[in-house]
Design a protein that fits this description.
Largest sheet: 5 strands, parallel
CATH class of one domain: Alpha Beta
Order of helices and strands: HHHEHEHEHEHE
Number of strands: 5
CATH superfamily of one domain: DsrEFH-like
Distance between the termini: 28 Å
Strand order of the largest sheet: 4-3-2-1-5
């Protein structure tokens, strides 16, 4: 079965999520030929960025995103969660310890386990302010990050997923 490459779409989505208009020249959308060969090791271990916009109002989506990021770590990848829009509330230290969705573990524990496993947890500073999340009262391991900072920390080849 031939492998479809989605890197151009991922690049466009990542740029749009960062509030940057992507260039619309043909080089952005140029596709390399599909191949049956296994992915190169550098591609197989690409950084995974899970962009979570869902907050307390949609714990299903938030827990799915956290779970995907944890799976990325377990597969040997560098994993980054970026909490923005409504999601900064999930990183608040005063989030109820028992807040969870269905049969998932509590959100606070999921995020703590993600950070303990080596995951990187970034919170949009602007969004935290809008959600009235106090920057000084985030869970351990959560770091306020602004768009410019985030781009400095991430490789251009990062894979991005949104929840």
């Amino acid at each position: 079965m031939k492998k479809i490459q989605h890197q151009p779409l991922i690049r466009v989505v990542a740029l749009l999520l960062a509030g940057i208009s992507p260039p619309l020249d043909s080089s952005l959308f140029a596709q390399s030929s599909p191949t049956d060969e296994p992915a190169k090791s550098s591609e197989a271990k690409a950084t995974v960025v899970v962009n979570i916009t869902s907050g307390i109002d949609d714990l299903h989506a938030a827990c799915m995103g956290i779970g995907l990021a944890r799976t990325a770590i377990e597969s040997g990848r560098r994993a980054v969660i970026f909490l923005n829009v409504n999601a900064p509330a999930l990183a608040a230290a005063d989030l109820p310890a028992g807040l969870k969705f269905a049969d998932f573990p509590p959100v606070k524990g999921m995020l703590a386990d993600f950070v303990a496993a080596g995951g990187e947890l970034y919170v949009c500073g602007h969004c935290a302010a809008i959600c009235t999340v106090d920057e000084s009262k985030l869970i351990e391991g959560a770091v306020i990050s602004h768009h410019e900072d985030l781009f400095k920390k991430l490789p251009a080849s990062a894979l991005s997923f949104s929840y």
